[in-house]
Amino acid sequence: MSRETSEAPVVAPVLVDAEADVRPSAAGAAARRALLARPVVLLVGIVLASVNMRAALASVSPLVSEISEAYGLSAAASSLVTSVPVLFLGLGALVAPWLGRRFGAERVLFAALLLLGAGILVRVLPSSAALYCGGVLVGTAIALLNVLMPGLIKRDFPDRAASMTSVYTGSMIAGATVVAASSVPLERVLGGWQASLGFWSLLAAVAALAWLPQVLIARGRTGHELRAAGPAAAPVRSVWRSPLAWQVTLFMGLQSLWSYVLIAWMPTIFTDHGMSRSTAGVVFAFNNLIQVAGAFAVPLLAGRMRSQRPLIVLVTTLVAAGYAGLMVAPVQGAWLWSAVLGVGQGGAVGLALTLIVLRSGDAVTAARLSGMAQTVGYLLAAAGPLAAGALHQATGSWTPPILAVLGVCAAALAVGLLAARNRTV
């Protein structure tokens, strides 16, 4: 039976552990103690892996026009360069928890970093097919990092989960910011967009190298072989049948959609209105950087409120205002719209992740709702860049795509107000 009640849950850190339902063996416990005895190794690995979690996506946007010209791609086909990885963020989220339980988070994260580096290199091979195939690998690798990294932090730093999450999210956003600002200058220095994109495979390789000691130390960990024992529990109704779970999931998906439209097209919107490519890249990088403010502040506020409806109104209004600004005065107000959108985007994703925990009555439900929200959310978000590119191609203007996103903001507001009620699944 569904437990959609008005009782406020006890709020835990906004993290879901993919290995929450397994118990380490004696060898596994010893390996974990060995890992925790070397916190610097863990910290360096987490920071470098986190830096890679958005870099491969942010590196493409400032170079979309060059990539399109090189292969003669239409606007709709160009949007697939961003949409394909986002699609596999959702599909990869389906298998990430199973892989973490089966092989251990350390091994899977190491493999994900190798896969990410390989995907970046495949993406710059002289073929449009390779461009999209590389996107499949990149999206799958980032999905594994997305799902398993928070659980690893929760497992190994239970008493410092909030501060470690700040390190992890800050590193992720910092990576995206630096990469977005560097893409066009690297293109000029290295002699082409292929070299600029391919350069970031080195970042993935360095992160994998930093992660290798953890894999070696944890090689004896066999926690995936033992299921956690516990008292028999009543059958739990699937979250897929809960209206509240769907409301949380749809808010996650809609806010992801408006963010990935910006990731795909923000620099192009600026350059189509006369801004230089290098300036457009810097403004896009600024948008990534300013997201830190919303991502940190909004979850803290949400955890102190019985109903998060005021925050839903705040973040959707900021995003809608920023998009409206892009439609009315994209170049003249570029820095302002970038800042307004950044606060709204960061706040929205932080709020979406917080709602997963706030609307869950227990850890098991939180894990299931997280999987549902990430899978459906990213699959929905993947349609955003493609639809925006198709509308732009059909009309020759950015006004119709922006109007469509404003409709998405209205839908997110409506479903978000339902998701923000003080109830649990």
TrEMBL record:
<feature type="transmembrane region" description="Helical">
    <location>
        <begin position="197"/>
        <end position="217"/>
    </location>
</feature>
<dbReference type="GO" id="GO:0005886">
    <property type="term" value="C:plasma membrane"/>
</dbReference>
<dbReference type="InterPro" id="IPR011701">
    <property type="entry name" value="MFS"/>
</dbReference>
<keyword id="KW-1133">Transmembrane helix</keyword>
<feature type="transmembrane region" description="Helical">
    <location>
        <begin position="311"/>
        <end position="329"/>
    </location>
</feature>
<feature type="transmembrane region" description="Helical">
    <location>
        <begin position="131"/>
        <end position="153"/>
    </location>
</feature>
<keyword id="KW-0472">Membrane</keyword>
<feature type="transmembrane region" description="Helical">
    <location>
        <begin position="370"/>
        <end position="392"/>
    </location>
</feature>
<dbReference type="InterPro" id="IPR020846">
    <property type="entry name" value="MFS_dom"/>
</dbReference>
<dbReference type="InterPro" id="IPR052524">
    <property type="entry name" value="MFS_Cyanate_Porter"/>
</dbReference>
<feature type="transmembrane region" description="Helical">
    <location>
        <begin position="398"/>
        <end position="420"/>
    </location>
</feature>
<protein>
    <submittedName>
        <fullName>MFS transporter</fullName>
    </submittedName>
</protein>
<feature type="transmembrane region" description="Helical">
    <location>
        <begin position="335"/>
        <end position="358"/>
    </location>
</feature>
<dbReference type="InterPro" id="IPR036259">
    <property type="entry name" value="MFS_trans_sf"/>
</dbReference>
<dbReference type="GO" id="GO:0022857">
    <property type="term" value="F:transmembrane transporter activity"/>
</dbReference>
<feature type="transmembrane region" description="Helical">
    <location>
        <begin position="108"/>
        <end position="125"/>
    </location>
</feature>
<feature type="transmembrane region" description="Helical">
    <location>
        <begin position="165"/>
        <end position="185"/>
    </location>
</feature>
<dbReference type="Pfam" id="PF07690">
    <property type="entry name" value="MFS_1"/>
</dbReference>
<feature type="transmembrane region" description="Helical">
    <location>
        <begin position="244"/>
        <end position="266"/>
    </location>
</feature>
<feature type="transmembrane region" description="Helical">
    <location>
        <begin position="40"/>
        <end position="64"/>
    </location>
</feature>
<feature type="transmembrane region" description="Helical">
    <location>
        <begin position="70"/>
        <end position="96"/>
    </location>
</feature>
<feature type="domain" description="Major facilitator superfamily (MFS) profile">
    <location>
        <begin position="38"/>
        <end position="424"/>
    </location>
</feature>
<keyword id="KW-0812">Transmembrane</keyword>
<feature type="transmembrane region" description="Helical">
    <location>
        <begin position="278"/>
        <end position="302"/>
    </location>
</feature>
